[in-house]
Design a protein that fits this description.
By secondary structure, this protein is mainly α. It has seven helices and three strands, in the order αααβααββαα.
Length: 163
Amino acid sequence: MARLPFDPIDEAARQWSNRWPGVPAMHAVTSLMRVQQLVIGRLDALLKPQGLTFARYEALVLLTFSSRGSLPLGKMGERLQVHPTSVTSIVRKLEADGHVIRRPHPKDGRAVLAEITEAGRAIVEVATAELVDADFGLGVLDEADLRRLSELLRPVRRAAGDY
């Protein structure tokens, strides 16, 4: 894709200001959404050789962090903050690739557990090394900027009920 000779978000803000208030918020949210698109695109491209997307990678990392290497799908959805159908889709793909096994929950007949396999654990190590080497797509920011960014976004997450 060719680079534009101007910042399209700045131009949108200029146009916006001729009609409506709230330019700083509109500019910030538009910038945030664009950066999200760019980062996810970069991370998915980095993970593609491992047959993963960032969403599938996050699910494997969550299972890696769990004490038993398994979690109910409902709990995964809560922790990943995604819709139950998204978790089901993610787990099905990971299962098809041999990275997880779905098992009936031993105590709750209605629940299904996703359990990470040794192949899943191995792919997490490879994928994590790739992401760390690429600074998770945020290599243009230094460590202090990354901390500031995280802290700047924390109140928005908190107000939305993330925690």
